[in-house]
Write a structure and sequence with these properties.
266 residues; Rossmann fold; 7-stranded mixed beta sheet; 7 strands
Length: 266
């Protein structure tokens, strides 16, 4: 299957420039990067895509078994790079795509030059010695609500996840994105996202990494960002003044500024 069609790939910038890949989170698509990615197109080969099952991807390529773990999505990132001939990649992943990037880097560290993890969470469920932000009951209730009424769940949860009540248009956009996703695929992806535990992989990352953390994020609290930073050897963290879980939409200028020096350093 043609890679451009499978993942709805869009590229901009100089073909021979350093590679910058933007990967979206749950319920979203590459459109969520439209205020950030263009800022780098003058000097980078910018690659935006949709994970299979999202946005304009080829839905016939969705395989429930392949995508029953985040590793299936990470394998797609590696396959996408191979099919497009991408090397020394700077990967920018938002939310669950941050952990997908971690898994891809652990499998092929030689392929990556830098990682930018925006609002990452290696595990959403609290344990005795780890705070992910949710109890096991919280996650189960979330998934049950999503299973029983996906559109209703999307309408209620998207504005909470966006976290900018003074700008209801942002919550409305995220709601529309959630509601535009195939419900069956979204339910499966949500279960994979919210029940995964990738804490062990963090210590295996060898690529230079920047964590971007919003100061107030209901999905990935500050403690989680700090945990990711402390677990990835040599990584750094920038705490954005932005609130909510989607600074690529709510604070794109701050997001661009926070990652600019890091991705441009050579």
């Amino acid at each position: 299957m043609d890679a451009l069609a499978r993942w709805n790939v869009h590229q901009s910038g100089p073909e021979g420039g350093p590679v910058l890949i933007f990967a979206h989170g749950f319920g979203c698509d590459q459109h969520m990067w439209r205020h950030v990615a263009p800022a780098f197109a003058d000097e980078f080969r910018v690659v935006c895509f949709d994970f299979v099952g999202a946005g304009g991807s080829d839905l016939t390529a969705y395989d429930p078994e392949r995508y029953s773990t985040l590793q299936g999505y990470a394998d797609d990132v590696l396959l996408l790079c191979a099919e497009l001939g991408l090397e020394q990649v700077t990967y920018v992943g938002h939310s669950v795509a941050a952990m997908i990037g971690v898994l891809a880097e652990v499998a092929r560290p030689d392929l990556f030059d830098r990682l930018v993890l925006v609002g990452p969470s290696p595990r959403y469920v609290d344990t005795d010695d780890y705070r992910g932000g949710f109890s096991a009951d919280d996650i189960e209730q979330l998934l049950e609500s999503l299973d029983s009424n996906y559109l209703g769940w999307s309408s209620a949860m998207a504005p909470v996840i966006m976290g900018n009540p003074d700008h209801p248009e942002l919550g409305a956009e995220l709601t529309a994105s959630f509601c535009g996703t195939d419900p069956d695929i979204a339910r499966r992806f949500a279960r994979v996202t919210f029940t995964s535990d990738n804490r062990q992989e963090l210590g295996r990352v060898s690529t230079s990494t920047l964590v971007l953390q919003c100061r107030d994020d209901v999905i990935a609290p500050l403690e989680v960002g700090t945990y990711v930073r402390d677990s990835i050897p040599g990584s750094t963290m920038t705490v954005l003044d932005a609130t909510g879980h989607c600074p690529n939409l709510s604070a794109p200028d701050e997001t661009v500024a926070a990652m600019a020096d890091f991705v441009r350093a050579r």
